[in-house]
Amino acid sequence: MAYASLATGVLLAAGFGSRFDPDGLHNKLLARMPDGTPVAHEAAHRLLRVVTRVLAVVRPGSETLARLLNDAGCDVVFAPNAQRGMGASLAAGIEASADAEEGWIVGLADMPRIATATIEDVARALDGGASLVAPFYQGQRGHPVGFGIEHRDALLALDGDTGARSLFMSQFVTRLDVDDAGILRDVDTPEDLRNV
Predict the structure, then answer these.
(1) Which residues neighbour 30 within 8 Å (Cβ) at sequence distance 6 or greater?
(2) Domain harbouring 169, CATH code
(3) Is residue 182 scored above 90 in pLDDT?
(4) What is the pLDDT of residue 135?
(5) Could you report the per-residue pLDDT of 75-114, keeping only the tens digit for each?
(6) Alpha helix locations (H) across the chain?
(7) How many angstroms separate the CA atoms of 31 and 14, rounded?
(8) Structural domains in the chain (count)
(9) Domain with 122 in it
């Protein structure tokens, strides 16, 4: 671990991945990348290189994924309202980390190629007093994002599928320009899996 942040990591892993498998038979987060590593395991591993505690938020019924993320080093939280969208899942992660004192770094479990250096940059900015932090690659905002502790109530109130977008639109954001296309590359289809 090159840089150890005091923030709490939240890894959102409660989506349905319907574009990856419309029949719902295969969870994209359990799919293996070309090197054989499951997508969610790699995303968790990279976040855990920077923060010592990561809460992985999964939907009820995802016991295999929960075991995989637990084995990767995460504390697993089941989000009973995950079907309502990313906002509800993020709120569940924040609620489960009521003891967090330094804010949160939120990543997505279907983004396994974010450079560890980018996660460190977000962590350093957050630990340095920034309230909202986001990496940008070629003008596009990506993940992971950082939230200061002062946003706890707003994060707990999230619901639906928009996540924390409204916070990023209404508040000052510390923008980190990075040379890391991984902040935008998620696994949505089997073709994406071949290209990570």
Answers:
(1) 38, 39, 40, 64, 65, 68
(2) 3.90.550.10
(3) yes
(4) 98
(5) 999 998 888 888 899 999 999 998 888 999 999 999 999 9
(6) 39-48, 63-72, 86-96, 116-127, 152-156, 165-170, 190-194
(7) 15
(8) 1
(9) 8-16+27-194
Q: What is the DSSP letter of 32?
A: B
Token pair in block for residue 103: 């804010």
Burial of 183 (0-12, 13-18, 19+ CB in 10 A): buried
| Residue tagged 């938020």 (tokens) | 57
Q: What is the pTM of this model?
A: 0.93
Tens of pLDDT, residue by residue over 122-148, are: 999 999 999 999 999 999 999 999 999
Place of tokens 């959102």: 12
**What's the alpha-carbon Rg for the chain, to the nearest Å?**
15
Residue 53: exposure state from Cβ atoms within 10 A (0-12, 13-18, ≥19): middle
